[in-house]
Write a structure and sequence with these properties.
The chain is α/β, with parallel strands linked by helices and 244 residues long. It is 35% helix and 23% strand. The chain is built from 7 helices and 8 strands.
Amino acid sequence: MSDQLPRVGGLAEPDKVERLVEAAPDVWWSSVGPFAGLHELNVVRVEYFRRVFGGFGGKRALDIGCGGGILAEALAAEGAVVTGVDPSEKSLGVAREHAKRSGLSIDYRLATAENLASCNFPEPFDLVFAVDVLEHVDDRDRTLAGIAQLLAPGGGLGFLTHNRTIAAFLQVIWDEEYVHHTMPEGFHDFARFITPDELTDGLQRNGMVAQEMKGIARAEDGTGRRVLTDDLTVTYLGWALRTR
């Protein structure tokens, strides 16, 4: 699939995914190509979130930047009442069709992370997830404020993003986009990567408190599976509670 990947540098963030899905319609659920690694990553992040949130069954969950529905379907399969939002209409079309084939009921809506209030959700969510999305938004503080408004008191936010370090640049951008071409050139913007301290401060400003952060790395057994570490240098995930 690598020879089909378009260059997306210079495009607005939502248009990058639109261009990619247009070039490779099966990209979200293919076992090869740019998002194949997301399925491997999804295993470890779902295990982590299941543990820290005490399961998903019966909980109202919002998946921000849901894309083709990889995380949303995992949550719904375990009994969560799931809503997914994304600014890519093509991705949502893929998500709706795949959920239908999977026999899952998921409410997918077109929206950006910065304009969650426009969705007019009838009640707050127990859980909100922002995975692989915070490093793509144009206004991170507005996004975090919107998340806090949608979380029920005591509700939890699950997040995953990339640290702004040289190591992250080399692995996530240089290696994947320009050496191995497993991601489209220009897909990530290093200036948008977020340090753990910046994210902690942003959460605090918006009434949420980070509870834990863990790094993610590839296992050294050659299987490609992801494992949790204490090293936050490249990619990290974690969770926060809405406290006010």
